[in-house]
Amino acid sequence: MKTVPGIPPRIAMNIVAGLSVAGLMLPEAVAYAGIAGLAPGRAIVAALAGGVAYAVLGRSRFAIIGPTSSSAAILAAALATLPGSPAERGAMATMMVAMVGIMFALIAAFRLGSLSSFIARPVLRGFAFGLAINIIIRQLPHLLGLKLASTSTLVLLADIVASLGQANGASLAIGLVCLALLIGLRATTRLPAVLIVLLLGVAASRLIDLPALGVAPVGPIDLGMAPWALPDFGFARWSHLVQLAAPLTLILLAESWGTVRTLALRHGDSLSADREFGALAGANLLSALGQGMPVGAGFSAAAANESAGATSRIAAIASLIALAAAALLAGPAIEALPAPLLAAVVIAALTHSLSPAPLSRLFKVGRDQWIALAAVAGVILFGVLDGMLIAVALSIGALLYRLSHPAVSELGRLGDSHNFVDRSRHVEARAVAGVAIFRPNAPLFFANAEQSLGSIAAKAMARPGDTDVVLSLEESDDLDSTALEAIAEFEKQLNAKGLSLHLARAHDRVRDVLAAAGLDRLARGASFSVADAVRVVEEQRSAQ
To answer: Which of 49, 418, 442, 538 has the maximum number of C-beta atoms within 10 A of its C-beta?
Structure first.
């Protein structure tokens, strides 16, 4: 990239990235306002207000804050259930945005951001892949010049296939040419591809009568807003709005955290969930103050920001300045832009998110690949929020299954050292005469204690000549009441067969809880290493 006199190259690159993203934000905001059934000005104000708040409070260098397709669809469904005039529904939309901000503030204040840790990385990767497919499918009607809409992605896809014969040829041609230009320019040059295509679109809309060819324009943009006032609703209406704001918050939490976390992982960045949710609280509260829409970190805009070469939040700030200038100064030109061009911009921004590499790596290592695919399928089949929740539930279920079915290793000594390792993995490790040594490879707790210790008891009692059993508890830093009772029963079972139990690698908290449960002999005799436990057994034998 050529340097700009007086501007460091890195800053110049971020400014160019911001200009490119602004070219996506404005027509995208208009489209999302249309989904929600609100004036386009509300979406633009939301993007500006939310972006300013996040620039002050947030930390992701790729996040672009604004209305999202998912939140716009949920807002539209919520408003459809509410009675009243368009003005009253607009006021209720503003109150819901404020409630979303308050809910995010509560999440941040009570440090509930740690709950986002339950969204595992394979879920995030599958989420990003599935969301990219979801958004692209929803752009196809605009690309084809079809007037189709559905809350279900699969139903929409089926409607698109059934309506292919009604597609507008001019719309399809414009969309495909723009898509080819965007991908080609991005692959062969560092010029702002989105900005170039938008300028070409403005020129085409002035030289050609596109509406006469059946090509839909972006449509009018009006930034005028009614005076802000707190609505005089009854308790029933307020409580209903709170109920409708809850799923809005969840969808924005899932989509925004999935977006910023995915991009952070891709570039090795570190983010605090509580801080990000606090930033989203400020973004939605400021959007409500400006009578905007619910805002979050949309995946398509963030992906466009990343692909445009952004390396800092300067790009997002530049996009806000460009968006405000475009809305105020270039409104008529943008209103005339062909809608297929917008669809091509959104699709091009998401093409690099369709790389199968993150998913294929999971298959290569043989871990969590089905959870990632469940996230992909869930987002496509059931939507962003339900798809994410299904994938999270599956990942937690898989974790619980692994914890409740732990592998049990029989340990042996390596030579004359103090090292004891799994004999099935190290053929050179040898058993200690008369001592059976076992290690559950997961913490003992209510779901696995009885099964694990029962398996060890069966193996120990099946070995002739052993008189002692050493149980290594290195994986357990604490024990619940079920595990305590299981250990007590395990010791009695071994004693009944003439075997003596010794604990090794017992943590201090484990010793404390054993003593509190009345298992004093095990607590006092517990060793800090397997070698120490074996030495104690051998000393006891020598003393007999």
So the answer is: 49
